[in-house]
Design brief:
Layout: E1 6-9, H1 11-20, H2 23-26, E2 32-36, H3 48-54, E3 57-59, H4 63-75, H5 81-93, E4 96-98, H6 102-110, E5 115-116, H7 118-127, H8 133-145, H9 152-163
Parallel strand pairs: 1-2, 1-4, 2-3, 4-5
Helix pairs in contact: 1-8, 4-5, 7-8, 8-9
C-alpha cells in the first residue's frame, strides 16, 4: 500500500462515524485504516473489538516514537497523548492523518502532513458510490445531532448538494 492509501485515525473520528451509523461502509473504502496501539484502551464507542473485526489495525509505536511523544506532550499540552500519537504515527509513515480535532489538524498541516476529516470520508463514500447522496446526508445529520464539531458552512453545502 502506498502512504496515500494509509489513513492514520484518531479516536474521535470513529465516534462520529459510529454515531452516523456508517462504520461498515467506511471499511469499504480503498484505504488501510491504522491507529496507534495506545488507542486500544480508549476505544469504548465504538468498542475496539468491533473496529478490529471490521479492519482497523493497531500500529505499534517504537521506543523512539514513545520518546518523541513525551517531548511533544510537554510542548502541546492541549492535545491528548492519543492525538499526539496519531500525529507521530502519520508523520513516521508519511501517511494521511484522519481527525476531527482542529488543534491536531493545525499541528499536522504545519508539519506538512495531509489531513482529512469525517466530511472527506463522506465525500469519498459518495464519490465511490458506497453511499448514495441521501445516505450521506442522513449520516451527516446524525453526526451533527450527536454533537460532531464540523465546519458549518461545509456541512450546509454538502447537505444542500446531497439532499437536492
Amino acid at each position: 500500500m502506498t502512504s496515500s492509501s494509509v489513513l492514520i485515525t484518531d479516536t474521535n473520528i470513529w465516534i462520529d462515524l459510529d454515531n452516523a451509523g456508517i462504520l461498515a461502509e467506511v471499511f469499504r473504502l480503498p484505504y488501510q485504516f491504522l491507529t496507534p496501539d495506545l488507542a486500544k484502551g480508549e476505544m469504548i464507542q465504538p468498542p475496539w473489538d468491533v473496529l478490529e473485526k471490521m479492519g482497523l489495525v493497531l500500529q505499534e509505536m517504537d521506543a523512539d516514537q514513545m520518546a518523541d511523544l513525551a517531548g511533544l506532550r510537554s510542548i502541546h499540552r492541549l492535545l491528548s497523548v492519543m492525538d499526539l500519537a496519531s500525529f507521530l504515527l502519520a508523520k513516521s509513515l508519511a501517511a494521511v492523518l484522519l481527525t476531527g480535532d482542529s488543534r491536531l489538524m493545525t499541528l499536522a498541516t504545519t508539519n506538512g502532513l495531509s489531513v482529512h476529516g469525517a466530511l472527506w470520508l463522506l465525500d469519498e463514500m459518495t464519490r465511490l458510490e458506497i453511499l448514495a447522496n441521501r445516505q450521506a446526508a442522513v449520516a451527516l445529520e446524525r453526526m451533527l445531532e450527536m454533537g460532531a464539531r464540523l465546519p458549518r458552512d461545509e456541512c450546509r453545502k454538502r447537505l444542500s448538494n446531497w439532499s437536492g
